[in-house]
Amino acid sequence: MQSIQLALPDWLIIATYFLFVLGIGAYLKRFTKDESDFFLAGRRNTAWVSGLAFLSANLGALELLGMTGNTLKYGMYVAHFYWVGAIPAMVFLGVYMMPFYYSSKIKSVPGYLKLRFDEKTRVLNAIAFGVMTLLVSGINLYAMALVLRTFLGWNWDVSMWVSAATVAAYITMSGLLSAMFTEIIQFFLIWFGLFLVAVLGILEVGGVQEVFARVPTAYSALWSTSGNAADNGMLVTWGGVVLGLGFVLSFGYWTTDFLVVQRAMVAKNLRAARQTPILASFFKMAVPFLVIVPGLIAYILSHDPDSGFALLQDGGAVNYDSALPLLVARYYPIGLVGLGITALLAGFMAGQAGNVSAFNTVWTYDIYQALFKKDASSEHLMWMGRAATIAGILISVVTAYWAKSFPSIMDYMQAIFSWVNAPLFATMLLGMFVRWITPSGAFWGLLAGMGSSVALFLAVKFDWIGKSLITLSSVASDMAANFWRAWWAWLICFAVTIGISLLTKRKPDEELVGLVKGLTKEAAAAHVPFFKTPEFYALLSMLAVIALNIYFW
Amino acid sequence: MSDKTVHMKPIWYFVGLMLLSMGSIILLTGVYLYFSGIDYRTVFAELHPNLWWGTVMIVAGALFFFLNRNASE
Question: Distance from B50 to chain A by nearest Cα, in Å?
Fold first, then answer.
């Protein structure tokens, strides 16, 4: 594809975005006085601020390029990532898990593991999370470089370094606060910047009904094609969707990944913290309009020789992730094309900023302070957080090159999540709800879960075992293998944790107060009418997602 | 003046300012393209999306900006 020549208005819009994020970083610096401001955004955020930041931290390259590209590959089935693969877990976090996170006043998810179990479990998780976060951060850089190369013909390396330097600048100035502010800016930019792609695409195809009529049956249903793996585009049965994605991967990500949970943990009070993921769930449900609808439209256009629409080729293979940028170029005139590019840039930069701000917190509190300098002062920790930000950015640039070797972004993401988050969810679930789970059980269970997930990944990748052995199906995609590998990792962690806990010494109950169900004061909603409680909004959210699943059955 | 007395503007103020700025650029571009008659060859160019989408952004931005200009966190 010939690169697009941007006009002055497009450049002005891109420049406005960069001015805003750097300006906000500089403006907030005066309010970033101590480690609490830098790492915890002062713990003063409303549910709306935390909720939109919670959602936006996840709305990076993964959601935009990856999911649109995956819709081209797998069809409507990708909506499972937004509905069954997100909403129940977000609601569960708000209703059941947030009281344990928030009430214990921890600063990170590994911090909870320290209180509930011991130091070694905390450090194991912190190191795994740090590695995962920097790997995922590389995806944002990779995706950003792809957009800039696709649209503007910019040099791959220069694009990554320029964007990384911008993120490093505003995160080192004001930490999590600027990360959250720019995530909310990103939320609005993405909606205003990409909404018209879906609208104009539907208009071109001839209406919503026509969109679904022109894609194969395997690409247009959520559940009716899930009985047999060969009947749906993703080649995964309902069992893989429910157990692997809906239960393990989804709950593992939304309830334990510090990148998103951190946004809820810094809300101003427990009620706001519990509302954070529940409010975000309503917006999460709507995101398919921005990515799945364009994905289906790209599928239709790319199969219509008269449309003049063709996906990019990378080394002879179709580059599915180029679909969304190409649609922006197709529909947006001068001015709007600048907005479309800025929306994509914002998604990538805020996604990277989210990863780096989570990394600097875990590194500083759960690795550096825990292992090397227990008596560090507030000023020293802030200095270390800033240094970790710059180091994290540099490492993520290196990992971006590795991300290029995978056929699509999403496959890469799910592989990483199944290594770290899936077994961690078993540890957290048992830790929060079963009081006799022991520190030794948690540590060895977590290690066994992570180790088995990586081993299964390598065994399939190098053909030591067939994919069908873990997917329980004769046909399976890489995505199906990810779902099932996550399930097995969770199950192994769950079983080993229980087994070892039965043989080892548990912590006394008095040390578990506020950390475990049954030993924690229930979140009382005194003087709050039912329709203002998290439970009420959780109920609405679940009803809405059930209705969506039935409608698109 | 001590920084303690400086109140932080809410994020909605910045959201409003940004939508106003970008919406204005898009609307003005749309007006220019409309009157200049330049053929910019995008699908549905005849609908002049710059004009109405720029207006939508300005209205949304103005609401966020004016409702929050005197507010603080």
Answer: 6
